[in-house]
Amino acid sequence: MERIVALESTVIAHGLPFPENVDTAFEMERVVIENGGLPKTIGIIDGEVRIGLQKEEILSFAKASDVMKVGTAEIAYATALKRNAATTVSATMFLARLHGISVFSTGGIGGVHRDIDWDVSQDIIELSRNDIIVVSAGVKNILDVQKTLEFLETFQVTVLGYRTDYFPLFHCRDSQYRLNLRVDSPEEVVEVLKDKRRLGIKGGILVANPIPEESAIDFDEINLLVEQAVLSAREDGIGGKALTPYLLSKISSLSDGKTLRANISLLINNAALGGKIAASPVWTV
Ligand code: PSU
Ligand code: MN
């Protein structure tokens, strides 16, 4: 049962442009398999929850512009009103766990937005409730990283640095944010989850897996782009669910696609680690 690795669909429908989104989604599935896992991309089609979208369904999500973006709070709306919906980290975690899945690979989780009053992602709340392993490359510095880390702690989310002592910043490997928990193997990640469950401690494990060295971008370089993007989001009056996709596409165009290439590389890297974690021999629960 633990061989399954959940993958989200918001990154396909709202996070990456076409055709990179569909290529990346397929490549992530391939890499999960290569590392011993069984990929299931999660989404909602005509109100039906799908644990494992078909290739054509992934392609239609990648091309469509009318697919909803749903967190856990909006799942029941999408199912009741028979909508097509891409699931964010929170919704994917919830649906994965409901179907007995314990491992989920994504790019970056949502968190506390910067320079905007009170935009805090549902992802953090779901991580505090749901005992599943989420592999991410940390968070983007389109967010307020310090506040995001503080929220994760407040909500009792276990944050593990994977072969690192620092919280990675998505496009950047290095950061000034020190982590106090480090693991060095997929087995250690599984053992931590097993003990959370054994002790009855609620909530998930966020595995912070740094982007591969060769695709990483310098902090100063990315920070400049983000500052510009946050500024134009303000000028354009962008907020709510549109904000994260807006910032992502803005920094990609400002960087001539360099951030897009980094994004793809870390997604594939996280799919590989998810596959290894799922295939670990130490699972017993
Ligand atoms: N961060 C990324 N790429 C993404 C997302 C976040 O680098 O595609 C998506 C994920 O699905 C995440 C969601 O769960 O955005 C968070 O959106 P919001 O900030 O609206 O909660
Ligand atoms: Mn938000």
TrEMBL record:
Per its UniProt record, what SUPFAM superfamilies does this chain match? Indigoidine synthase A-like (SSF110581)
Catalytic reaction equation(s) = D-ribose 5-phosphate + uracil = psi-UMP + H2O
Under the heading InterPro entries, the entry gives: Indigdn_synthA-like, PsuG
> Which Pfam families does the protein's record reference?
Indigoidine_A
Cofactor binding description: Binds 1 Mn(2+) ion per subunit.
- For the ligand (substrate), the binding residues are K69, V89, S121, Q122, D123
Q: State which Enzyme Commission number(s) the record gives.
A: 4.2.1.70
Q: Does the keyword S-adenosyl-L-methionine apply?
A: no
Gene3D superfamilies linked to this entry: Indigoidine synthase domain
User: GO molecular function of the protein, one example?
Assistant: hydrolase activity, acting on glycosyl bonds
Q: Which GO terms describe its cellular component?
A: cytoplasm
Query: Which family would the database say this protein is a member of?
Result: Belongs to the pseudouridine-5'-phosphate glycosidase family.
HAMAP family xrefs: PsiMP_glycosidase
Its quaternary organisation is: Homotrimer.
Described purpose of this protein according to its UniProt entry = Catalyzes the reversible cleavage of pseudouridine 5'-phosphate (PsiMP) to ribose 5-phosphate and uracil. Functions biologically in the cleavage direction, as part of a pseudouridine degradation pathway.
Name listed for the protein in its UniProt record: Pseudouridine-5'-phosphate glycosidase
Whose protein is this, by species?
A: Mesotoga infera
Q: Coding gene?
A: psuG
